[in-house]
Design a protein that fits this description.
With 286 residues, the protein is α/β, with parallel strands linked by helices. The termini are far apart. The chain is globular and about 60 Å long. The chain has 8 helices and 12 strands. It is 24% helix and 35% strand. InterPro entries: Methyltransf_25, SAM-dependent_MTases_sf. GO terms for molecular function: methyltransferase activity. It holds the Pfam family Methyltransf_25.
Length: 286
C-alpha cells in the first residue's frame, strides 16, 4: 500500500480523532461491506467501480432464480452498467434499466449491442434519479440490488416504494438488499479504513484507501476513496466520495407495508460479527 495516503475526513464527519498512520487499516481482497455503490467519475474510475461491485456479483443467481418464478418484464433500479440487466436480457427477460449515471447507461447499451440484437432489443434504458422516478410500464419483478436502497434519502424512500409497488402486476415482486449494521458496532467503531488493490489489466497499478465514516445522529455514512494510479511515467491521485444512509430494518418494513407490499422472504448473509447482508423479497398485497 502506498505510504502517501493519509485520509482527510470531510468536515461533517470529522468529529473523531484521526488514527495514527497505518493503525486500524484493513488490507483485504474480500467483500468490502458498504463500499459497493459509487458511480465512476471518469473512464479511469471504471476499474475501481467494477472491483467494488465484483464481490457482490453472486446475487445475480438469486435474482435470476426469482425472475424465473415471476416472469418479466423486469425493472432494474440503479442498474449501473448492466451487471444484472444484461444477463437478464441474455436469459430472455425484457428489462427496463434505470440509473442517473449517463456513462453507466452508455456502457450498458454498448455491452448489450456487442452481444447481439436479440439481447439489445430486450433492454430499455432510462436516465433518472430514483428520487424522481415516474414509471409508465408494469412489471413482474422490480430490483433494488447492490444495496441501492441505502442510496435513497429516507425521506424520499416511501415515495419510491409506492411508485414501484403501484406498477407491479398482480403477484409481482420487489427484491432488494441492504447492509444491516448492529448499532453497538457502529457506536464502538464509527470510522473504518480499508486498503486494497484494484485489479487492472491496462498497465496501471492502482491502490485505494477507503475511509468509511458513520454519522449516527443523521443515520448516514460517507465513504471516501483515495486512489493512486501509477503508470510508467506518472502517478495520478483521485478522490471519490459517496454518501449513503444507514437502513433501519423496522422502518424499512413499515414503509414497505405502507406501500402495499408484504415481506414474503428474507435471507441473511453474515459479513462479520457486526454486519450482515439482508435480501428481502416483497409481494404486492393484491
Amino acid at each position: 500500500m502506498p505510504a502517501a495516503f493519509a485520509p482527510v475526513l470531510p468536515s461533517r464527519y470529522g468529529r473523531e480523532p484521526e488514527p495514527a498512520p497505518g493503525a486500524g487499516v484493513r488490507v483485504t481482497s474480500d467483500t468490502l461491506p458498504g463500499l459497493e455503490s459509487v458511480s465512476p467519475a471518469d473512464e479511469n474510475s471504471v476499474w475501481l467501480h467494477d472491483a467494488l461491485l465484483g464481490p457482490h456479483s453472486a446475487d445475480i443467481v438469486r435474482y435470476l432464480s426469482l425472475a424465473r418464478s415471476t416472469g418479466g418484464p423486469v425493472l432494474d433500479l440503479g442498474s449501473g452498467a448492466g451487471r444484472l440487466a444484461v444477463p437478464f436480457a441474455r436469459h430472455g427477460f425484457a428489462v427496463e434499466a434505470v440509473d442517473r449515471d449517463a456513462s453507466a447507461l452508455e456502457r450498458l447499451d454498448g455491452w448489450a449491442r456487442r452481444i447481439g440484437p436479440q439481447v439489445a432489443g430486450l433492454v430499455v434504458t432510462r436516465r433518472t434519479d430514483l428520487t424522481e422516478l415516474r414509471l409508465d410500464g408494469s412489471y413482474r419483478l422490480a430490483l433494488l440490488a447492490g444495496a441501492m436502497v441505502a442510496a435513497v434519502p429516507p425521506a424520499r424512500r416511501p415515495g419510491l416504494l409506492r411508485e414501484v409497488a403501484s406498477h407491479l402486476q398482480t403477484g409481482g415482486a420487489l427484491a432488494l438488499d441492504y447492509t444491516a449494521h448492529q448499532l453497538p458496532g457502529l457506536i464502538a467503531e464509527p470510522q473504518r479504513t480499508w486498503a486494497f488493490q484494484v485489479p487492472r489489466f491496462d498497465g496501471i497499478d492502482e491502490w485505494v484507501v477507503a475511509r468509511q465514516v458513520f454519522d449516527l445522529p443523521s443515520m448516514s455514512e460517507r465513504i471516501t476513496y483515495y486512489a493512486a494510479r501509477t503508470g510508467k511515467l506518472s502517478t495520478e491521485r483521485v478522490v471519490l466520495t459517496t454518501d449513503k444512509w444507514i437502513v433501519e430494518p423496522e422502518r424499512l418494513a413499515a414503509e414497505l407495508h405502507s406501500a402495499g407490499l408484504h415481506i414474503e422472504g428474507r435471507r441473511r448473509h453474515r459479513i462479520d460479527e457486526r454486519t450482515e447482508s439482508v435480501l428481502l423479497v416483497c409481494r404486492t398485497d393484491g
